[in-house]
Amino acid sequence: MKKLEVIGRILFALPFAIIGLSHLFMSTEFMKMLEHSLFPGSMYAVILSGIMLIIASISILANKYVKVACLWLAGMLFLIIISIHVPNMLIEEHFDDAYVNLLKDTALLGASIMISIFLTEKK
Length: 123
Prior knowledge:
Blueprint: H1 2-24, H2 28-32, H3 42-61, H4 66-89, H5 95-118
Helix pairs in contact: 1-3, 3-4, 4-5
């Protein structure tokens, strides 16, 4: 079971780290999804959120402050859903992508909350 826990932490945290890195090296296609964001200063918010995703991933991979990192991810995912995906669902050409991303991020939000509850740090 210990090996499965480690594999699970890696499989959960690694994509967030990669997404965080992509926030630092964003493409114009990525920026199109932020045109209708409710965040002021979207460019800076994207860079800051990328850094926070990387820090949370490192914390989960290192098995340090996992509860805090997962609750932080849950909060970030909630803000992303409300401020990016929901407004993009109101725009016809972005609806399909926004709908899929909303469902994906909602599932990740639930997983983050579950992990923060069930995966406790080992003494």
